[in-house]
Every structure is written in structure tokens, then in C-alpha cells.
Design a protein that fits this description.
Elements lengths: L7 H7 L192 H6 L13 E4 L5 E4 L4
Antiparallel strand pairs: 1-2
């Protein structure tokens, strides 16, 4: 009787999971359990990583361009400076992952969980984060131009200096978020919840945007947009914009 040859997935699962600089381009690793694995600097372009378990793994400086990570578990993973451009991370669980300096441009992050992730200087240009959970992210200086954030949960997010030009934040929740020095030129703030948010020193914010958003008396506004409250929920914006 011929002995069954173990698949690549089985080989990796039974290994010591120390796989730096591994060539796994296009590999089929759907559902693999690689929790805590070391894949630093690896090539995972176009790989099938659906529902893979990579919790607490080390994947920094790796190339995951176009990889399918639908439903993957990457909680606590180190993805510092990794390339996830055009990858599919729909419904992925990335809570507390380290994505500082990572490329997530044109990436599908719909309904993903990025809560408490480190996203300092991460790139989200033209990515789709509709319905994503991004509460309390550390996203200072992140690049989110043209990012779709419709209905995203972003309460308590640190978006200091973030580039949000042309981003779509319709129906997104940014209660108590820090947007100090963020760029909001042509950003869609239709029904965006900015109650208690810090908008001090933001650039590009217009009175038209504010009127479409939801603010309260705890929202810190930039000096060039003075708000006069006429009731608990109604307000006028005074002073000419500069």
C-alpha cells in the first residue's frame, strides 16, 4: 500500500514553524494552524490563506500581495512593514496585530476586526474597510486617501495626522476619536458620528461637512469653524472659513 505523501499544509503544521524567508507564493494553506509561526520576510503572494490560524505569528516584512486571507485569524500577529496590497481580508480577525508601516492599499477589509491594532504610518489608500471594527486603533499618520470606511466602528481611534482626503466615512462612528491635525479635504462625513471627537487643527474641514456630520458640545472644533449651539442638537457655524 502506497504511503500518502503529506501535503504542504500538513508539513508546515507538523514542523517547528520556524520558516523565515519561506517561498510560499501561491501555496494552498487554507485552514492551516500556524499559530506562533515565524514567517518573517516570506513570500506569500497570491497564497490561499482562507481561515488560516496565524495568531501571535511573526510575519513582518513579508509579501502577501493578492493573498486570500478571508476569515483568517491574525490576532496579535507581527505584520510590521508587510505588504498586504490587494489582499482579501474580509471577515479577518486582526485584533491587536502590529501593522505599523504595512501596505494595505486596495485591500478588502470589509467587516474585518482591527480593534486596537498598531497602524502607525500604515497605508490604506483606496482600501475597503466597510463595516470594519477599528475601535481604539493606533493609526497616527496613516495614509487613508480614498479609503472606504462606510459604517466602520472607529470610536476612540487615534488618527492624529492621518491622511483622510477623499475617504468615505459615511455612517462611520468616530466618537471620542482623535483627529488632531488630520487631513479631511473632500472627505465624506455624511452622518459620521463625531461626538466627543478631537478635530482641533484639522485641515480641509468645511462647514458643509460639519453640517452633514453628527457632533455635540464635546466635539473639539478647529478655530476657523466656530459653533454656536441653539439647542441640544441644533447649531449654527459662525465666522468665515479661512
Amino acid at each position: 500500500m502506497t504511503e500518502k505523501t503529506p501535503s504542504l499544509k500538513e508539513k508546515l503544521e507538523s514542523s517547528k514553524k520556524y520558516l523565515p524567508n519561506a517561498d510560499l507564493q501561491g501555496a494552498d494553506l487554507e485552514g492551516a494552524d500556524l499559530a506562533g509561526a515565524t514567517l518573517t520576510g516570506s513570500d506569500l503572494r497570491g497564497a490561499n490563506l482562507k481561515k488560516i490560524f496565524l495568531s501571535d505569528s511573526k510575519i513582518s516584512k513579508s509579501n502577501l500581495t493578492g493573498a486570500d486571507l478571508t476569515g483568517a485569524n491574525l490576532s496579535g500577529a507581527d505584520l510590521n512593514k508587510s505588504n498586504l496590497g490587494k489582499a482579501n481580508l474580509q471577515n479577518a480577525y486582526l485584533r491587536r496585530a502590529d501593522l505599523r508601516g504595512a501596505n494595505l492599499s486596495e485591500t478588502n477589509l470589509t467587516k474585518s476586526n482591527l480593534r486596537e491594532c498598531a497602524l502607525f504610518k500604515a497605508w490604506f489608500k483606496k482600501s475597503d474597510c466597510s463595516g470594519a471594527n477599528m475601535q481604539n486603533i493606533k493609526g497616527a499618520q496613516s495614509k487613508m486617501q480614498g479609503c472606504i470606511l462606510v459604517g466602520a466602528k472607529m470610536a476612540g481611534a487615534d488618527l492624529t495626522g492621518a491622511r483622510l482626503e477623499r475617504a468615505n466615512l459615511e455612517d462611520a462612528c468616530l466618537q471620542t476619536a482623535n483627529l488632531n491635525r488630520a487631513f479631511l479635504n473632500d472627505t465624506n462625513l455624511n452622518r459620521t458620528d463625531l461626538r466627543g471627537a478631537n478635530l482641533r487643527y484639522v485641515a480641509g474641514l468645511t462647514r458643509e461637512q460639519v453640517k452633514l456630520a453628527r457632533i455635540d458640545k464635546n466635539t473639539l472644533m478647529p478655530d476657523y469653524l466656530k459653533v454656536k449651539w441653539t439647542s441640544q442638537s441644533a447649531f449654527d457655524i459662525l465666522d468665515v472659513e479661512k
